[in-house]
Design a protein that fits this description.
The complex is a heterodimer of chains A (239) and B (180). Chain A has 239 residues and is mainly alpha-helical. Chain A has one domain: Ferritin (Up-down Bundle), CATH 1.20.1260. Chain A is 64% helix and 0% strand. In chain A, helix 2 packs antiparallel against helix 6 and helix 5 packs antiparallel against helix 6. The longest helix of chain A is centred in the middle third of the chain and has 26 residues. Chain A is globular. Chain B has 180 residues and is an alpha/beta fold. Chain B folds into two domains: 77 residues, 2-Layer Sandwich (GMP Synthetase, Chain A, domain 3); 85 residues, no CATH class. Chain B is built from four helices and seven strands, in the order H-H-E-E-H-E-H-E-E-E-E. In chain B, strands 4-7-6-5 form a four-stranded mixed β-sheet. The longest helix of chain B is centred in the middle third of the chain and has 15 residues. Chain B is elongated. The two termini of chain B are 31 Å apart. The chains are: A mainly alpha (239), B alpha/beta (180). At the A-B interface, helix 2 and helix 6 of A face loops of B.
Chain lengths: 239, 180
């Protein structure tokens, strides 16, 4: 199996799942209601499981997660963005889960090293997308305050969405078609949530493809420091 | 051609009788996660196990329990491999498994109309009647009183494989093993 693995793609997709999983885990103890605490942790766990499979295609999962420097991570800048308020987390979930569901759905159909995982994970991600959609509708079409916050969140994360559709080496899907499908799906949810589809560019001059090249935003370093410090402080420790 | 020997059938029965670590009323056979058991030579047994969810942490406990049971029946080397494809589905839970879940207070998953493919989660109010694609002909019934009038509280519950619902008749909250 290892011989056919496109490590750069496995790393990119594995890092997306790992980093978003960690971000969602940061909600533990802070979510607005108990059910949401459980939901976000469960979504994080699904993503962590996907990350473990993908990173294990590349090498030792623990070494990859805990011993790489910031510049060696290949995740999208979208998934590393801080949780912000609950609306920001939901907007990030909506953008990413829609992307992941479309991508895994396509990967499950093409014969390749990712087909097995994708066929399994796409069923999990369907629940993530549904979760994000329900909240987008509730917040967007809710009170003036929730509408305003959801609108602000969708706007502020929009510039990180273009990076998702840059082709990954070894991933044989129609990226342009996927971008169109993503835009259609997200626009539909936003319309139903009485929200505007952001009009700005989907990438800034400096953000285009940057995460996939190892260039990350400021808060990512702090996230990694927290995620890695225990492992680095006690190398080789076991329970 | 793959054949299963009498020894392998016996080994499969042993491995399959291991209780699920999170839902101990079910065995691994009833949960449908045991894919194959192969005897390799005289001392080695290879077991193929598939996770319910990709990140399910119970898979490690399941592997250790299978190893322990087979060791205690004289197998020297046990290798448990995790396989992802074909993906596990709640349709793999046996009828006996469904009965036990209900008895345990967990609404069992409904069967998919199609045997495979992604779950088609559609938007709608949280009441049972509006949920597709299972619900028009099969509501999620309350495992306590049997009522079909139940509502969704959260798509995620104590574990990734369950959703939290509430019965509108007896008012009891309950877990629903959600369709995957």
């Amino acid at each position: 199996m290892t011989a056919t693995v496109h490590t750069s793609a496995a790393l990119a997709l594995g890092d997306d799942a790992l980093v978003l999983s960690h971000r969602l885990g940061e909600w533990a103890g802070l979510a607005p209601v108990l059910e949401e605490e459980v939901a976000l942790a469960n979504i994080a766990l699904d993503l962590l499981g996907q990350a473990r499979v993908l990173l294990s295609m590349v090498g030792n999962e623990d070494e990859l997660a805990y011993l790489r420097e910031e510049r060696a991570f290949r995740n999208l800048q979208l998934v590393e963005q801080p949780n912000g308020d609950f609306a920001h987390t939901i907007a990030r979930q909506l953008y990413f889960s829609t992307y992941q569901r479309l991508l895994y759905g396509r990967l499950a159909e093409v014969q390749g090293e990712f087909a097995g995982l994708a066929a399994k994970a796409v069923k999990e991600v369907a629940y993530h997308q549904d979760h994000a959609e329900q909240w987008t509708l509730r917040l967007g079409d809710g009170t003036d305050l929730s509408h305003e916050r959801m609108s602000r969140a969708c706007e502020s994360l929009w510039r990180f969405t273009g990076e998702m559709f840059l082709p990954l080496e070894g991933v044989d899907v129609d990226w342009t078609g996927m971008k169109d499908a993503w835009l259609e799906s997200v626009s539909d949810v936003l319309h139903r949530a009485t929200l505007e589809v952001p009009q700005g560019p989907q990438s800034g001059a400096w953000t285009a493809g940057a995460g996939r090249q190892g260039l990350h935003t400021e808060s990512f370093g702090r996230m990694l420091a927290e995620m890695q410090h225990l492992h680095r402080s006690h190398p080789g420790a076991t329970w | 051609m793959v054949t299963t020997t009498a020894l392998e059938e016996e080994l499969r029965r042993l491995a399959g009788s291991v209780p699920d670590p999170e839902l101990p009323v079910l065995t691994l056979e009833e949960l449908g996660v045991l894919r194959a058991v192969h005897a390799r030579g005289t001392d080695t047994v290879e077991v193929e196990l598939t996770p319910t969810y990709t990140g399910c942490p119970a898979i490690e406990a399941m592997s250790l329990d299978i190893e322990r049971v087979l060791h205690s029946h004289g197998v020297r080397d046990v290798v448990v491999r995790t396989v992802l494809a074909p993906a596990w589905s709640t349709d793999d839970i046996t009828d006996e498994g469904r009965r036990k879940l209900r008895e345990f207070g967990i609404a069992p998953p409904r069967r998919h109309r199609e045997a495979s493919g992604p779950v088609d989660v559609r938007l709608g109010p949280t009441r049972t009647a509006a949920e597709a694609p299972h619900a028009e002909d099969e509501p999620v019934r309350c495992p306590h009183c049997g009522s079909s009038e139940t509502e969704l509280l959260s798509r995620f519950s104590s574990t990734a494989c369950k959703a939290l619902r509430r019965c509108l008749d007896c008012r009891e909250p309950f877990d629903h093993f959600k369709e995957l």
